[in-house]
Structure formats: structure tokens, C-alpha cells
Write a structure and sequence with these properties.
The chain is α/β, with parallel strands linked by helices. The chain has 24 helices and 21 strands. A hairpin with a 2-residue loop joins strand 7 (273-278) and strand 8 (281-286). The radius of gyration is 37 Å and the shape is elongated.
Length: 641
């Protein structure tokens, strides 16, 4: 019996009824409990000292009944079918007794070979009445030799019982070792090493059949947040639920897991092999699928099953996966290439938003190489002094007066040249480098604003973008206060811009954080307004001074009536709430005329000026100061030419 008290599963195949009855009497009807008790009693008498002077021996624990669970069949084909069915049910045999000769059908050696192919772990005993049988020769035909035993007929019942118990103990120990080496102890799924073995086997089979197979690389979105906020115990519980759902979502698989005692579990009929690579990363191998439409069905089913709410012991969660897909042989012909390309496709799927899947494309390699190169150069860019700030002017629409500057980060690397913020800002956010970079931007912008005032220029508003990671820091308010004190900048002329998506992510936190920043005397703006899910009713709770209409609406003002209506609505509602509005991305006069018609407060964009390096921005400030009380048109002409 195994550690759970389950009986040892035994298969007996012999063509003679009388022999099968002998096995039955030995494994089912025989009083095995007495035999086991006798052995234990002998052990006690030999090795345990009697207690006291009475000579009373310690009492033995009760012996569990029915230590064996045998199956009997009369032919080789039937034996092979029984092993196949047991594997499909997840209840494999530990020991198989096969008669050497079972006429008129196939013999025991044939059955041993087929059974070994189905279950490499099973212990096989060849039984024969012929003394000229060579066990070594049998082992060479049905390797490995150490998992083939030989039993001469006629045999004593004790031989059968002891051999079964001994071989089953060996089988359980080997299964335990296999589980520790090749299976994930948390979820019971195959681990990284076993998944590589399975993928290698699947590639070989696909190559032999000139077929295809698909590798799906699955990663849970924002799983780290679960561990960080709810604890690793909840994270482990979540991973177990995810593993169970993945098992259930595939209509069939070979071995997808074992329990703590080496028993197979989660076996079903369907279309894939599942493994946990580590952390929140899983892999699904689809050996019989290679067409995009078929793979899409499976990927969509995986995403749908995982997106359903998960009820844990203390929390209810909703998780989404991102899936990358690589197909043999188009996307790789070896294990490493397929895994790398599926992982790369998963990264691109994640960039598209939670709950997506993406197929590998050769262009991803070039993009990934570029991405990794940028990340490598980004590390240390601050220390090498490669960053600079440019300043884009903001103008009052009604008067044409210069009222503010937005500090925009620029990066120039000796090897890569000038890198667009669109390329490096997301990488800085993913790697956490945005925290130190963002603090540098804030400090440098405040220093520049103070330097211009010290030159005698009129003070104007300095707008600085704040990343979501910065804003969520507990000490961000203190950081802002420290920088203001260090630079001597008047907080009334500092405006912090926070994107709408960040503001709406945690409204309770946002309300308190904005109030704390407002208490410093700074102004607050919501950037990219209109792209998220906020409403004016919810915005009234926040200490916000300005909304910045996203450039996507401004760009399409002339072509899209919906965008015109949205922009006009934002301006009107903001005016009623006494919140200023700045339109970004103004590039032509018709756009400016629309904003003027709807009484938008301020605008910025290439129509007025690109972002300027400090020296050019300084010259623009001097021209604005000299323009004085000129008309709007004259003022704009004198400032921007």
C-alpha cells in the first residue's frame, strides 16, 4: 500500500485459468495480513528488547486490509489494453506479472515491450516454467534490465506477495524521485526540465510525420501585485487554481501531473501537454495542432477560463493571461528556439494589453534586439549625463500670451543616437529606472525655472510629467517638497502632470495623494484626458487645476465629428467646474480656430513651437517679455516668428 493507504495496483496476465486462480488466492483471498504480521513479529523478536521482566513485546499496529488491487487477464493484447486504460484513468499499475507464453496469441515478451512503451516506470515480472530462459536476454529486448524481474514456475505464494511488495516499494520510491526532479511540487504540473523533454519528444514525432506543433507560452498579468499586496500564500493558492483550470481547459493531454505520492492525476483526453516553467509562467504544447485558426481556438479558451473570477480562501480575484505562440517548424526546429520565440511573442502580446495572445513573427527578433539594446544603454545613461530637458511653450488661446513651459525628456546615446521617448519611456517604466529618471527630471526642471527667474525673466508655470510609479510612492510628496526646498523654486509655478489612467487606477489613494501634493502649493493637471474611463462627477473629488485634452482628439478635430463633440464637451464641462483646459498637439490654424471658438484656455503644439533646448527656450522667454501688451497676433508673431 502507498503512503495514502491505497492498495498496490497489480496486473496479472496468464492464459491458464488455474494459474490465474492461484494468483487470485495469493493477492485477494489469502490472509496477507497474517503474513505481514508474522514478518513484523519476527523482526521485533530479533531486534527489539523485551519490556520489563514480563517479556511482553510491544504490540504491532493494525495492518490495513486489502494491500493489493489486482487485475487479471488471459492474453497479451488484453494486458496491453489494461495498461493503456489504467494510464488514461490516472491509476497506473505498479507491478505487472506476464506469462512467458500465452498461445495462441502474442507472448509475454511482446506484451512487455508494448507495456514498457506505454509506461516506462512499471515493474515487469516475466513468469515461465522453462528453466532455459535467459533473464539477461529478456532485459536486452525490453530495457531497462533493472526493471525486468524473472520468476520460475511453480512459485510459492510468499514469493508473489514479497516480490509484489518489494517491487511496489521500489516503484513508489522511483516515482517520488521523478516527481521531485521533473514535477512542480506546488501545482503537480511538469516542471521546466520535464517540459523541455516533452517538447523534444513532440518535435521528434512531428518531424517524423512531417507535421506541425504549437508552443503556447503563458504568463499571468500583474501576478507580482498579488504576491506583494496579498502575500505569497495567496499567490501560491492562485497558481494552483490556475493549474487546475489549465488542465480542465484542454480536452486531452498525456501526463499533466502527479500527486505527492507519485500517482498520476489530471489525465484527460485532449490536445496538449501543460507545464509550469516557474513563477507565473506556464507552457502548453499542442503536438497535433499547427494551423493558426485551430491554435487561436485553444488560446482563446485558455484566456477565457482563466479570466473567470477565482474564489480563494480569503479573497476573490480576477486574473488575465498573456500568451505567446510559436509554431514548429516555421518558428523554430529545436526546443530552445521555439521556447525563446514563444516567450518573445508573449512579451508582445502583453504590450498589447492584458488577456491577449500573439503569434511569433520574425520581425519580433529585430524589435526585441532593439528593445534589449535600448534597455542596456538606458542603464547608466543618467550617470553618463546623456539626458537633457527640452521645453515646449504653452500659450493662452485668447491673448496669445506665453503662460507655461512643459519639460520634456530627451535622450542621446553615443551609439544609438537620439532615441524617441516613445521607445525608451516604456522600458524605463518596466525596469523601474523611471523612478530615478523621473526624480532627475523634476529636479532639473525646477532648477531651470529658478535660473530663469534669477536672470530677471518673469516667472511662468513649469509643467513636469509624473510617472505612475512615482505617483504611487508613499514618499513622493516628501520628494517634491525636498526638491522645491533644494532648488528654491516657488511651488505656485510648478505643475505636476499625472495621466488619467494613473489617476483612475486607485481613486481613494489618488484623492489623498493629490490633496497632499496640493498642500505644498503646486498645481495639478490630468494628462491625456479623454483616453481613460474617468467622469467629471468623479473628478470633482480631486484637487485638480487643469485637464489636458489628449492629442488624439485634437489631431482629428477636422475629420471626426465624434472627436469634435468630445473635445467641445470637455472644454464646456471643465469651464463649469472652474478647471482650466490645455489642448495638446495643435498643428494647424483650423484646430486653433476650433479651440478659440469653444473658449479653450490654453494650447501647445507644433503650430506654436516644438520643444526647445534650454538656450532657445530662454530666447523665447525674452521675446515674450518684450512683446508686452501687443495684440495677440503681434505677440505670437514676435514670440514664435
Amino acid at each position: 500500500m502507498n503512503a495514502k493507504g491505497l492498495p498496490i495496483r497489480v496486473l496479472v496476465a496468464d492464459d491458464e485459468e488455474i494459474v490465474r486462480d492461484a494468483y487470485r488466492q495469493t493477492l485477494v483471498e489469502g490472509d496477507v495480513s497474517k503474513d505481514l504480521a508474522a514478518f513484523r513479529d519476527l523482526r521485533v523478536r530479533l531486534f527489539v528488547k523485551p519490556i520489563g521482566d514480563t517479556g511482553v513485546l510491544p504490540r504491532l499496529g493494525s495492518v490495513r486490509p486489502k494491500p493489493f488491487d489486482p487485475t487479471f487477464c488471459d492474453g497479451a493484447e488484453e494486458a496491453v489494453a489494461a495498461v493503456r486504460e489504467a494510464i488514461a484513468e490516472g491509476r497506473p499499475y505498479a507491478v505487472v506479472f506476464l506469462d512467458m507464453r500465452m498461445p495462441p496469441g502474442a507472448d509475454g515478451i511482446w506484451a512487455a515491450g508494448r507495456i514498457r512503451e506505454l509506461d516506462p516506470a512499471v515493474e515487469i515480472v516475466i513468469c515461465t516454467a522453462y528453466s532455459d530462459t535467459d533473464p539477461g536476454q529478456i532485459g536486452s529486448v525490453v530495457p531497462p534490465e533493472e526493471k525486468i524481474s524473472y520468476l520460475q514456475k511453480p512459485f510459492h505464494p510468499h514469493e508473489i506477495r514479497q516480490m509484489t511488495i518489494s517491487l511496489a516499494s521500489k516503484w513508489r520510491a522511483e516515482h517520488r524521485i521523478v516527481q521531485l526532479a521533473y514535477f512542480d511540487t506546488l501545482t503537480g504540473l511538469p516542471n521546466r526540465e520535464q517540459s523541455r523533454n516533452q517538447l523534444r519528444t513532440s518535435i521528434t514525432a512531428a518531424a517524423a510525420q512531417e507535421g506541425k506543433l504549437a508552443v503556447l507560452y503563458l504568463d499571468l498579468d500583474n501576478f507580482k501585485r498579488v504576491n506583494d499586496t496579498l502575500g505569497h500564500a495567496v499567490g501560491d493558492e492562485l497558481l494552483c487554481v490556475v493549474a487546475d483550470r489549465l488542465r480542465g481547459s484542454l480536452r486531452a493531454t498525456d501526463i499533466v501531473g502527479v500527486d505527492g505520492d507519485g500517482e498520476h492525476k489530471g489525465r484527460a483526453r485532449g490536445e496538449g501537454h501543460i507545464a509550469r516553467l516557474g513563477g507565473d509562467e506556464f507552457i502548453v504544447i499542442l503536438p497535433q495542432l499547427g494551423e493558426a485558426a485551430e491554435i487561436a481556438v485553444v488560446a482563446s479558451r485558455l484566456i477565457s477560463c482563466l479570466q473567470m473570477p477565482i474564489s480563494l480562501s480569503t479573497h476573490s480575484l480576477v486574473v488575465t493571461p498573456s500568451i505567446g505562440i510559436a509554431i514548429y517548424p516555421a518558428d523554430g526546429t529545436d526546443v530552445d528556439t521555439l521556447l525563446r520565440n514563444a516567450d518573445l511573442a508573449m512579451y508582445f502580446a502583453k504590450r498589447g494589453g492584458p488577456g491577449n495572445y500573439a503569434y511569433f513573427d520574425a520581425s519580433m527578433n529585430a524589435k526585441a534586439l532593439r528593445r534589449f539594446t535600448v534597455e542596456g544603454k538606458l542603464r547608466g545613461a543618467l550617470e553618463r549625463g546623456e539626458f537633457a530637458l527640452h521645453y515646449q511653450p504653452q500659450f493662452e488661446v485668447r491673448t496669445g500670451a506665453l503662460v507655461g513651459m512643459e519639460a520634456l525628456l530627451r535622450w542621446t546615446n553615443a551609439d544609438l543616437g537620439s532615441i524617441s521617448p516613445v521607445d525608451f519611456i516604456p522600458i524605463a517604466e518596466e525596469t523601474g529606472l523611471i523612478l530615478e529618471i523621473g526624480e532627475w527630471v523634476l529636479r532639473r526642471a525646477c532648477k531651470q525655472a529658478k535660473a530663469w527667474v534669477d536672470e530677471g525673466l518673469p516667472p511662468i508655470r513649469m509643467a513636469v510629467n509624473v510617472s505612475g510609479q512615482q505617483f504611487m510612492l508613499q514618499n513622493f510628496r516628501d520628494t517634491v517638497a525636498t526638491i522645491l526646498a533644494e532648488t528654491g523654486m516657488d511651488p505656485n509655478f510648478l505643475e505636476l502632470e499625472i495621466t488619467e489612467s494613473v489617476v483612475m487606477k486607485d481613486e481613494a489613494w489618488t484623492e489623498q495623494a493629490l490633496a497632499d501634493l496640493k498642500a505644498l502649493g503646486v498645481s495639478l493637471a490630468i494628462d491625456d484626458f479623454g483616453t481613460g474611463y474617468s467622469s467629471f462627477g468623479r473628478l470633482r473629488r480631486f484637487a485638480v487645476d487643469r485637464l489636458k485634452i489628449d492629442r488624439s482628439f485634437v489631431t482629428s478635430l477636422l475629420e471626426c465629428s465624434d472627436d469634435r463633440a468630445i473635445a467641445a464637451g470637455i472644454i464646456a464641462m471643465s469651464r463649469s467646474l472652474r478647471i482650466n483646459v490645455t489642448a495638446e498637439g495643435v498643428e494647424n490654424f483650423p484646430q486653433l480656430m476650433f479651440l478659440q471658438e469653444h473658449e479653450c484656455h490654453e494650447a501647445q503644439g507644433f503650430l506654436f513651437s516644438r520643444a526647445l533646448p534650454p538656450t532657445e527656450a530662454r530666447g523665447l522667454l525674452y521675446r515674450a517679455a518684450e512683446a508686452g501688451g501687443a495684440s495677440r497676433t503681434a505677440r505670437l508673431r514676435s514670440i514664435i516668428g
